[in-house]
Design goal:
The chain is an alpha/beta fold. The chain folds into 3 domains: 10-220, Rossmann fold (3-Layer(aba) Sandwich), CATH 3.40.50; 244-317, no CATH class; 327-399, Structural Genomics Hypothetical 15.5 Kd Protein In mrcA-pckA Intergenic Region, Chain A. 44% of the residues lie in helices and 13% in strands. It has 18 helices and 13 strands. The protein has helices at 10-17, 26-34, 54-68, 99-113, 128-131, 136-143, 148-151, 155-162, 169-185, 197-209, 246-254, 261-267, 273-279, 284-300, 302-317, 330-333, 340-347, 353-361; strands at residues 22-24, 40-45, 72-77, 122-126, 189-193, 216-220, 327-329, 338-339, 365-367, 370-371, 378-379, 386-390, 394-399. Helix 9 packs across helix 10 and helix 11 packs antiparallel against helix 14.
Amino acid sequence: MVWKDTSISMDEIDKLIEGIDTIVGKESLIERISQKKILKVKLGVDPTRPDLTFGHMVVFNKLRQFQDFGHEAILLIGDHTATVGDPSGRSSTRPVLTPQEVEQNAKTYLEQAFRIINPEKTTIRRNSEWFSRMTFNDMLIIARKMTVARMLERDDFAKRYRENEPISIVEFLYPLMQGYDSVALEADVELGGTDQFFNLLVGRALQKDYGQPEQIVITMPLLIGLDGKRKMSKSYDNYISFNHSSKDMFGRIMSIPDEVMGTYFKLLLEYSDGEIEMLKDQHPMETKKFLAQSLVARFFGSAVSEKELADFKAVFSHHEIPENMPEFSLEVMAKDLVTLADAMAYSQFFESNREIRRLIEQGAVKVNGKCEKDFKFLLRADCCPYIIQSGKRTFFKVFP
């Protein structure tokens, strides 16, 4: 395949490697681009959960950059590998998903991914296309290309082995399956987080065994979560989801520690070091508001982001109640006696009844501006409306 645009600039190389953590095969990348080849750029995602987080946004941004330069973005849905479960960074075996769960998650992944990458320039593939046709003997042929000793070079496997934690044979097969995806797609480049480095190198090794040019491996830094310490993960409850409401997204961004803001500007908004340095001249709170407004605008548009900024200022800068908030009716709740816990559960703003009870007992819930620690507090029609506030971000109104 040959580019229509015959101009080549090192600016493209500089842009494509900007912000990365590691690259293996940089010379090959320069050579292939210099030869005006349209690269097949692979990003694999296993639909193990129904939503994507801002951690995924880091690699999606890089994939979109390749699209912008005219390369072919291949979004590989790991519908077959998802039933195995990627062991990267895990201290235990992942639970097995059903095909129905995988398919539902895959559908939502695509809807979310296309908020970042260009759907018209994206090739969607599923690794069930080749794995579902394979025989057991086919898998044995692939398995012979990797040794146990090489697998135990992986930090997570080595750690589990030292600590006598079980490692299933299936987990050993996972890197081989991901690596074979690159063979099936004849990938030129594979993207992933730093925790995927071993798996991406397996792809290079298998391509060499199969007589293909080895893919360039590019890993992106892992985004630090809201706690400012660990990588962003739903498991740590320190995440921001593509599917969060604009209000929740804005509020969660405002909760990140000041010291990680530069990383968010760099990895999520693709700011240069110079642009980030200029932001240090203003107060950290103003910088964080700008960060939240910019990210919310990317998902919901500038009008919505400006409204969330105004609401945030009203609530937190002037200690006011937001002008607009969700409303729920006592009558619709269809219970004779509606408690504070009932209303909070009905709102669906909270993960579980256990979380609701914990928030109330810890004094994190206010009713009409007053702290209420009794989860059995009754909401009466003749005393409505009630303004219920949980923490700094969640408000809703209860009317008769």
